[in-house]
Write a structure and sequence with these properties.
By secondary structure, this protein is α+β, with helices and mostly antiparallel strands. Helix content is 43%, strand content 19%. Helix 6 packs across helix 10 and helix 10 packs across helix 11. Bound molecules: zinc ion.
Length: 380
């Protein structure tokens, strides 16, 4: 992504969201054991430096010093850097207390690569959280940098897939992501310029804490432009996976087109509509009027998540029927005129609603209230 270009981020919770229990991950505390018997003195020196480096990271997080924290991260992968920008913005704006990041163990992988086992703890929204995970650090030009979780990587035609732990179903997965790509690009009529990074997690709590520490519930998938697409690793074959991939790819395409200025419901409605495979047609009756739907704060929503997604899709489909897809794409293009919105959709959806009201007046010659009345279920 080029900063300042038409890049945005969006946020998009995938259709395989899993509701609402955030539990206190009680884990067994481990005593810190440093097995240095097989290490040379320079290795031990590097390990000590990495431990100090992680303590500095912890301090920057406690102080909410974003600038210093961002300097500790590798920029080799822009997706990771953006994930951490959004992750840190959430720490700044939310009520995180008692944060600590304890180093349990640091191991040498090779002369310049080290793996640290960490214990992250904090308090938020009246809950205590505790999570053990492993992170990679590398020494580059005599400088230590944080290189993300301990992912292994392989590529397909249109994706770079990273995963934690062991991967089963690899062949099936390669096939499904490419099917998802074909559904999204075929339906929307546009291809993606670069390969898309997918990260597969083996722990639902690690996925949640990797996205936002303040998030109130655990989910099965996440995408926010220009981050990687994140999914919980699948244990079984499921047909939903390729649609989930298609859903997130539609976010990537449309959010970029609108420079991240879309209302939340519009982003989700487009992703749901264009990730449908042919023949999966239905006539869902929306649970909300459009005017109600746009006010919902999805990240703190306590209703049925499927009602939100299906209602969003319903209104996008009404728009396409009434005005045609070209007009809908024109709306996205007009939204991009507001410039790239760097924050996450959860933070700026109310602002984006206002932009949408202005743009439909210009592109469709209608007010939002008129659109609401036009698409009201009573009128159909
Ligand atoms: Zn979504």
């Amino acid at each position: 992504m080029k900063k300042g270009g038409v890049y945005f981020l969006v946020l998009a919770i995938s259709i395989i969201l899993i509701s609402c229990t955030s539990n206190n991950n009680i884990i067994k505390e481990e005593r810190r054991i440093k097995d240095t018997t097989s290490y040379k003195s320079e290795d031990i020196e590097s390990i000590n430096k990495i431990e100090d480096f992680i303590k500095e990271q912890e301090q920057y997080i406690i102080e909410k010093n974003k600038e210093k924290y961002m300097e500790t991260l590798s920029k080799d992968e822009e997706e990771y850097y953006w994930e951490k920008i959004h992750w840190f913005d959430d720490i700044i704006s939310s009520d995180i207390e008692g944060y600590s990041l304890e180093v349990l163990k640091v191991e040498k992988v090779d002369d310049l690569k080290f793996r640290a086992e960490l214990l992250q703890k904090y308090h938020c929204n009246e809950k205590d959280y505790s999570l053990k995970y492993a992170n990679i650090y590398r020494i580059k030009d005599n400088k230590i940098l944080d290189y993300d979780l301990d992912f292994k990587t392989f590529e397909t035609e249109h994706f770079i897939i990273k995963y934690l732990g062991k991967l089963q179903l690899k062949e099936w997965l390669c096939e499904q992501v490419e099917k998802g790509y074909n559904i999204a690009t075929g339906n929307y009529g546009q291809t993606l310029k670069d390969k898309t990074i997918i990260k597969l997690y083996d722990d639902r709590e690690l996925l949640r804490q990797s996205v936002k520490l303040s998030f109130g519930w655990q989910f099965g998938g996440w995408y926010e432009y220009p981050e990687s697409i994140k999914f919980l690793k699948l244990k079984n074959f499921t047909d939903y996976f390729k649609r989930g991939i298609a859903h997130e790819l539609i976010h990537k395409l449309t959010i970029e087109e609108a420079a991240n200025n879309m209302p939340y419901w519009l982003a989700e409605g487009l992703a749901e509509h264009f990730s449908k495979e042919e023949g999966i047609g239905d006539r869902y009756q929306p649970s909300y009027e459009l005017i109600e739907l746009e006010k919902i704060d999805l990240e703190n929503y306590e209703g049925n998540i499927y009602d939100y997604y299906e209602s969003s899709r319903f209104y996008v489909e009404r728009m396409i029927e009434a005005y045609g897809i070209e007009k809908v794409k024109e709306i996205l293009k007009e939204l991009s005129e507001y410039g790239f919105q760097e924050k996450t959709n959860g933070e700026i959806y109310l602002e984006n609603n206002k932009k949408f009201h202005e743009v439909i007046q210009k592109v469709l010659g209608t007010t939002f209230e008129e659109m609401n009345a036009e698409f009201s279920v009573d009128q159909i």
